[in-house]
Design a protein that fits this description.
binds iron/sulfur cluster; five-stranded mixed beta barrel; single chain; Transcription Regulator spoIIAA; 19 helices; eight-stranded mixed sheet; binds S-adenosyl-L-homocysteine; binds FE3-S4 cluster; 4 domains
Length: 575
């Protein structure tokens, strides 16, 4: 039987983008064919996010459209994967009977069999159309969810076994199999990759669904991580971003490792008091985050840029900062959300640090890593939530004070969104009116915009190394390539499979996304890329050289002008 065609769209964070890539690789290997438009696809999969209500609404509206389509196309198989599937569970299928497959982020290794069953079931229901009822169709849904209780049980290692296999079986393909239709996205994707080091989260910030959707914190064995990095490097990757919800909390105890079927298992997060300047047990029996960074740097030398997100402020020991300082290919970029500048609100959020402790970290990090005179400044970015329950004008002013004091390169500002199942939802009234949340959001964005602009200006006249990601959007428009129908998402091509992805953050929530200014001229090609410090750079290349050949490489660019977070320049002949 030939496999059906699949359209996969991704919402949410980088963790979800990586999950989509792994799922696509797995299905592709089984013979599923991926298409880049939903029309005509026989299977539609949404890999969803639940972090704010707005993220969920996008999926609800897509599902509403599919319910209409399915009336004319009853063979269509619809799958909801990821955090919304886990959070809402079977209630989602009751609300949206159009859904045939429900698969949480901790169960993605089971997706091929769920899909296969769902496809066969739909075919047989169709042949039995006269007698099948809505209830039959609902009960035919294929569901794999972890549920909170089982996930936090002692059998954690075994439960993670097959999920770990999904990461280990990652498909990498050499650069020369690049998809002709999507040259830029394909090349970048293969030159830049995510590698998971930790699953889940144990922090339980009171507003956050992630510990419920992604489960308990589990650290992957360092050997698995390093092997994956080597495999990617062999396939042409030069930039790796390590992923974890509190990525710098990584810690693997070798003596405590469990082996199942000859495979060392990911390890349940052992709690240790954060804020240690140095891990007292670092050494042969423990691989700390600092050890992991330095091992990847030493053992996978062809990786030119090593990044990691998202960091937790209390878990930055001096050992990590020293490793970043002493290893030139580790980027001087830290994404370390503060969430609020008010101690009272931080406490209600259960963030586990005070403003003074956060600022102490920022100063210490700058002390170790901010070396603009050597051409290596430190960029810090953050996240802020405004309108948390009980937040007052004075709390908000304190947050503005923190933004001013830290001087983030960019900062995502989110309006508090109450999430069912979280402590804040259960215990605290969402009592800040939306109009005030909006006002605070705009004020914080204005302040951050000014700071982003001021920091960007410091780059004018400098020559910076830029990892070239692709043609700029303006250049694509110039070449009359129509924007994607999904509106605002980007398309990534992975081994010939197209994955649509939407950034977690909406543009209006970020004080950094400057519109691209300046129509590229016909005599030049405009490319876009990123600096080591994560600044977005647009630069012109004379049209007499093949600009596309630069995509996926790191080139020197002389910065001539800036607009908020975006830097504009031209390819430089010399450093
Ligand atoms: N693990 C990361 C963040 C993951 S969620 C960390 O702790 O830093 C990404 C961001 O979404 C968070 O930093 C927070 O700013 C925001 N966020 C999470 N839950 C939210 C909610 N209920 N309402 C508004 N913003 C939220
Ligand atoms: Fe959510 Fe807090 Fe964990 Fe980040 S650290 S994922 S905000 S619970
Ligand atoms: Fe990521 Fe959204 Fe889940 S931010 S972890 S996809 S809730």
């Amino acid at each position: 039987m030939s496999r059906p065609s699949v359209y996969l769209e991704t919402f949410g964070c980088q963790m979800n983008e990586l999950d989509s890539e792994l799922v696509a690789g797995q299905l592709h290997a089984l013979g599923y064919r991926f298409v880049d438009e939903p029309e005509g696809a026989q299977v539609i999969l949404y890999n969803t996010c639940s972090v704010r209500e707005h993220a969920e609404q996008k999926v609800w509206s897509r599902l509403g459209e599919l319910a209409i389509r399915k009336q004319d196309d009853p063979a269509l198989v619809v799958g909801v994967l990821g955090c919304l599937a886990e959070r809402d569970g079977v209630a989602l299928v009751k609300r949206m009977p159009v859904v045939d497959v429900l698969c949480g982020p901790g169960e993605l290794d089971k997706l091929p069999s769920l899909l296969d069953n769902a496809y066969r079931t739909r075919q047989s229901l169709l042949s039995d159309r006269a007698t099948a009822t809505d209830a039959d169709r609902r009960s035919a849904s294929q569901v794999a969810l972890q549920g909170n209780s089982s996930r936090r049980s002692a059998t954690l290692a075994a439960a993670q076994d097959s999920l770990e296999m999904l990461d280990l079986s990652r498909a990498t393909s050499p650069l020369d199999t690049m998809d002709e239709d999507h040259p830029s996205a394909g090349a970048v994707r293969k030159r830049s990759a995510y590698v998971r080091i930790t699953r889940g989260c144990n922090k339980f910030c009171t507003y956050c669904v992630v510990p419920f959707t992604r489960g308990a914190e589990v650290h992957r064995p360092p050997e698995h991580i390093i092997d994956e990095c080597k495999k990617l490097a062999d396939a042409g990757v030069i930039e790796i971003t390590l992923l974890g919800q509190t990525v710098n909390h990584y810690r693997f105890e070798h003596g405590a490792a469990v082996t199942i079927g000859g495979v060392v298992q990911p390890q349940k997060g052992r709690s240790y008091a954060g804020g240690h300047r140095r891990d007292p047990f670092a050494g042969s029996s423990v691989t700390t985050f600092a050890d992991l960074l330095s091992r990847i740097h030493e053992e996978v030398a062809s990786i030119e840029r090593l990044r990691f997100v998202t960091s937790y402020p209390r878990d930055f020991g001096d050992d990590v900062l020293e490793v970043i300082r002493d290893h030139p290919r580790v980027c001087r970029y830290l994404h370390v959300p503060a969430q609020s500048g008010s101690d009272r609100v931080l406490k209600l959020m259960n963030r586990g640090y005070t403003v003074a402790e956060y600022l102490e970290f920022v100063d210490r990090a700058r002390g170790f890593l901010h070396e603009p005179e050597k051409g290596r400044p430190l960029s810090i970015s953050g996240d802020i939530i405004v309108g948390f329950p009980t937040e007052t004008e004075a709390d908000f002013e304190a947050t503005i004070g923190l933004i001013e004091r830290v001087r983030y390169k960019n900062c995502f500002i989110f309006k508090y969104s109450p999430r069912p199942g979280t402590t804040a939802f259960d215990k605290l009234d969402d009592d800040v009116p939306d109009a005030i949340k909006r006002r605070w959001n705009n004020t914080a964005l204005d302040v951050q915009s000014r700071i982003s602009d001021e920091l960007s200006r410091e780059s004018i006249g400098r020559t910076l190394d830029v990892f070239v990601e692709g043609l700029s959007r303006m250049e694509e428009k110039k070449r009359e390539r129509p924007a994607k129908a999904c509106g605002g998402g980007v398309s990534l091509t992975i081994g010939g499979k197209v994955i649509h992805s939407h950034a977690d953050e909406d543009d209006e929530d970020c004080g950094c996304s400057a519109p691209e200014a300046g129509e590229p001229s016909a005599a030049t090609t405009q490319l876009s890329g990123r600096t080591d410090g994560d600044h977005i750079v647009f630069f012109d290349v004379p049209s007499d050289r093949r600009a596309e050949e630069l995509i996926g490489s790191i080139v020197p660019v002389r910065i001539e002008r800036v607009q908020r977070l975006s830097l504009f320049g031209r390819l430089s002949g010399q450093r």
